[in-house]
Design goal:
The protein is an alpha/beta fold and 218 residues long. The protein has a single domain, classed as Vaccinia Virus protein VP39 (Rossmann fold), CATH 3.40.50.150. The protein is 40% helix and 23% strand. It has a seven-stranded mixed β-sheet, with helices on both faces. Strand 6 and strand 7 form a beta hairpin. The protein is globular and about 50 Å long. The chain binds S-adenosylmethionine. The site of S-adenosylmethionine has 24 residues, from helix 1, helix 4 and strand 2.
Amino acid sequence: MTDAFENMDRMYRLQRYFYDATRKFYLLGRDRLLDEMDVKPGEHVLEAGCGTARNLIILAKRHPKAHFYGLDASAAMLETAQAKVDAAGVKNITLRTALADDFRFDSTFELAKPFDKIFFSYSISMIPPWRESIKNGLENLSSEGSLFIVDFYDQAGLPRLFRSALTRWLDLFHVRYPAELVPFHQALESTGAVSLSVTPLYRGYSILIGAKKATKST
Ligand SMILES: C[S@@+](CC[C@H](N)C(=O)[O-])C[C@H]1O[C@@H](n2cnc3c(N)ncnc32)[C@H](O)[C@@H]1O
């Protein structure tokens, strides 16, 4: 577990200074996810793997009456995130160093009740225990809550050369799209745990997943 903290700190110690300027060109679909989340006043919304808090700051400005939380494995990345939150002047963001598969709404964030929404933006493809992280996310959601993911997808509609160049580039950052991601959610849906929406974007470059917790009828 300690390794995940150290690895992410090592990876982002320098990158965090130019992260936002470079990632805007290839972490596509993030703004679409933020638009589709439909945050309501008073809601508590968590980003798991929030990085520099780029997404949280956009949401916090857009929804000043909602409460936003971010966790990340890299304390160094969160130092940059906190500086950006302070510079943006938003007061409704709380950040914590934690792992996506090992946080709790109460002990990690001192909250009395679970989150209304939890999202993963280009973090699932970096988290080896991604299944456990999604399950932990669902456990930390209210009974009516929703979980969202935007990440790389299978690149199926893109030229083969582009696909192999992108895969080699992402390997440098230990980023890998998990081919089991959609089947994993479909399996959850088949048990009645969630209702699912899956939207491939940009000819399969990226994918948006929405999983709303299903209230089981007795
Ligand atoms: C590619 S960045 C995405 C940052 C941000 N979500 C965005 O959209 O700009 C992935 C982030 O996930 C974090 N991360 C990786 N593994 C993690 C884990 N197991 N738990 C929590 N955060 C993790 C990394 O430290 C990094 O900040």
